[in-house]
């Protein structure tokens, strides 16, 4: 379970950053940054925060709402940002993820002094000092909170995208290459939101 140990080692004004959507074939990669300004927060939120992948969709939505309430109280600040499919195709997924992370961190007020990044790679030219942590979303409250915001925001985006492009099951598969998604591509082609640099999409285009 996450705790405050990593944040405590880094000192004041520490944010956690995580992303959602590196693997899907379609849609943006989304990053969130969360910085707790006051640790006297909702006990239910604190006990529930965890790596978003370990939570049900219903639980993530509930925790997202609790995080928004804490933000309204001034107990935390957050930023959510994305890099588009076109930016992923132009930059590659790693650099597009770093771009989304920088955009998310730059939305924080006050500005962070240190950013805790989930993973094993550090972005360059960041707005503050950075440190990376493998499985950080299971170790740090800040990173875990960011993972929840990023995942919920992106899932909601994909549900909206499903209304615009109803043949691919985006509301269920979040853009991953499921049978329904593949069937949609074969029958209706790709959308402007598909990542053309990804092998399955590139293979379809080259047919």
Tags for this model:
Nucleotidyltransferase, domain 5; 9 helices; 45% helix; alpha/beta; five-stranded mixed beta sheet
Describe the structure.
The chain is of the alpha/beta class and 207 residues long. It has a single domain, classed as Ribonuclease H-like superfamily/Ribonuclease H (Nucleotidyltransferase, domain 5, 2-Layer Sandwich). The chain is 45% helix and 16% strand. The chain contains nine helices and five strands; from the N terminus they run αββααβααββαααα. The protein has helices spanning 5-10, 43-48, 57-72, 85-91, 93-105, 141-164, 170-173, 179-188, 199-205; strands spanning 14-20, 29-36, 76-83, 114-118, 129-133. It has a five-stranded mixed sheet with strand order 3-2-1-4-5, sandwiched between helices. α4 crosses α5 (93-105). The model has no long low-confidence stretch (mean pLDDT 96).
């Amino acid at each position: 379970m996450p705790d405050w140990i990593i944040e405590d080692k880094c000192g004041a004004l520490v944010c956690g950053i995580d992303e959602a959507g590196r693997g899907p074939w379609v849609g943006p990669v989304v990053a969130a940054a969360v910085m707790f300004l006051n640790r006297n927060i909702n006990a239910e939120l604190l006990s529930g925060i965890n790596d978003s992948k370990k939570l049900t969709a219903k639980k993530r939505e509930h925790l997202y709402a609790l995080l928004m309430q804490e933000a309204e109280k001034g107990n935390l600040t957050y930023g959510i940002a994305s890099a588009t499919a076109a930016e992923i195709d132009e930059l590659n997924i790693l650099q597009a993820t770093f771009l989304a992370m920088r955009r998310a961190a730059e939305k924080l007020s006050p500005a962070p002094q240190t950013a805790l990044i989930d993973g094993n790679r550090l972005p360059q030219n960041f707005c503050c000092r950075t440190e990376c942590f493998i499985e950080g979303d299971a170790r740090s409250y800040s990173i875990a909170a960011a993972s929840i915001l990023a995942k919920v925001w992106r899932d909601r985006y994909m549900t909206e995208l499903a209304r615009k492009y109803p043949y691919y099951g985006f509301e269920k598969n979040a853009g991953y290459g499921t049978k329904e998604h593949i069937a949609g591509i074969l029958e209706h082609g790709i959308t402007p939101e598909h990542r053309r640099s990804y092998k399955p999409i590139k293979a379809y285009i080259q047919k």
